[in-house]
Amino acid sequence: MLSKEFVSKVKELCDEYGYYSTAWAALTLMGREADNTPVVPVPLTWVKNKRQSVVLERAEKMEAQVKAPVTLIEAETETKTTDGVLPVKPIYEDSDTPEYATAGAACLDLMAHSKTGHETEENGGCIEIPPFSTVTVNTGIAVAIPEGHAGLVFARSGIAQRDMIRPANCVGVIDSDYRGQVMLALHNDSNVPQRIRQGSRVAQMMIVKVERLIPQAVDELPETVRGAGGFGSTGEDAL
To answer: Taking the CA of residue 217 as centre, how many other CA atoms within 13 Å lie in the half-sphere pointing to its CB?
Structure first.
């Protein structure tokens, strides 16, 4: 059972770190065994009050696992003045802004928004993906990728390993001139229905520089040692 002090601190911190905060703000939930040996910290990013339920649920699970009370350890706020700016337009009032989970993260976490047409009251308003099926999930945001860059959307290792959910096209591409809502085609590779709650981190986006080359028809291509060697031409590895 989570203590009243713990719940109160969660609400206080969720209020403090605003929706449009540009600083990286994180807290660490840490459980301790009876012998006071620290458990591996679980980093959480805090943005809005509506995510309190997610935080408290995770805390309860951790508390049950370590069979000891959990405490909040506040991490230092980290900022980088050298970072560029990615304009993000919320589509809904409760849309989540993409964010880096840590100061060294290469990708921005993308959160699911429940307004997809696949959520029902029966499953608690969650988005449900049937077994071996693909569902288009809203993120609730539109972005303006800087010219000369692109956004690459990858699976998140946690949800892919635990729930077998991944982008259906493996890697998504967001062009710099696209201004519509970022949509995720998520595929369920498992044999059971998978549910996603609003605010869940379901994919990650990396902003990369791209170089456009103009195709030009030629009679011959420059020669190489490999030539036209294709599949298996460089040797076969033992399985």
So the answer is: 0
